[in-house]
Design goal:
Length: 294
């Protein structure tokens, strides 16, 4: 029988702690749980009040990987849930609101993906996201050059951009926005992607056609649609190594654009970064800094 662990007064069965989930790092499930407990103060604000989809990989990235959007069977009754409208009919999804529910969810071994709106105000987006996905041989340096252009373009519209790694091979630009429907934000994001392609025609593509991507950066604007989700800040990814979707500074982006660093961070490095810098995405929660979508 799996022993129970007390987390903020909740009793959790945290299982298979010695199981290696990241063979390249020898990173175990117990280390995954310790990572999430350590960065919880930075992570939880990015999950709170957002319906969470799980990309599960219980045997590591080399094993079965599958998405779970509905509340998983066996979910404790104390884990918060919310009904979310979907094209195929409403669904009930998990909310990760506190440390206990975070540790329960981490025990499932999953990436955390969230919408750009909260269940409190589902008709209004409070985030804009642009996913920069490089087509080989393009890489992180090319993504950084595109990110810097988009930062200036957003600033011209009074919108402050922040950046994190995807935890895979690209970057995510994030901005706090207000009083805009997901459709309006999505249309604006598409205009930005089109403008980036016009300004950087040898470097950017805004269309999803994979045949157009080699050597260029795909600016994926579509993740602003109400039904879409994006990997949350600080989530571990289902990769051979224990890489994390990591907030980074614009100074780091500028350096990587010149070939100084690959902006790939593993769990242990992220723990140290949070201890030293706090959450670099904390400005997203400052209401006065949210921009208006034109």
């Amino acid at each position: 029988m799996t022993p129970l662990t007390s987390v903020d007064g909740r009793r959790l069965a945290l299982s298979n702690l010695e199981k290696v989930l990241y063979p390249a790092d020898g990173f175990t499930k117990g280390e995954v749980l310790h990572y999430y407990a350590t960065v919880a103060d930075a992570l939880l604000p990015h999950l709170r009040d957002r319906a969470v989809s799980f990309l599960r990989y219980p045997d590591g990235a080399a094993g079965q990987v599958f998405f779970t959007k509905n509340v998983p069977p066996g979910t404790p009754e104390w884990v918060a849930t919310a009904e979310v409208a979907r094209a195929e009919g409403p669904a009930r999804m998990v909310l990760v609101q506190d440390l206990a529910s975070l540790m329960w969810a981490a025990n499932l071994v999953a990436e955390f993906h969230t919408h750009q709106w909260t269940v409190v105000r589902p008709a209004l987006a409070d985030r804009l996201v642009l996913d920069l996905d490089p087509g080989p041989p393009a890489g992180v340096a090319e993504c950084c050059r595109v990110a810097l252009w988009l930062r200036e373009r957003l600033a011209a519209d009074g919108i402050e951009a922040h950046v994190k790694t995807s935890g895979a091979k690209g970057l995510h630009l994030l901005a706090a926005v207000r009083d805009a429907s997901p459709g309006r934000v999505s249309a604006y994001a598409k205009r930005l992607a089109v403008a980036a392609e016009a300004a950087l025609p040898g470097l950017v593509v805004h269309r999803m056609n994979r045949g157009l991507r080699p050597g260029k950066v795909f600016v994926d604007w579509s993740q602003n649609a109400a039904r879409k989700t994006t990997a949350a800040p600080y989530t571990l990814r289902a990769r051979p190594e224990a890489t994390v979707s990591t907030p980074v500074s614009w100074e780091e982006v500028a350096g990587a654009a010149e070939g100084q660093g690959d902006l790939s961070f593993r769990a242990g490095e992220v723990v140290r970064r949070v201890a030293e810098h706090g959450d670099l995405l904390a400005p997203l929660f400052e209401t006065g800094r949210a921009g208006r979508v034109p």
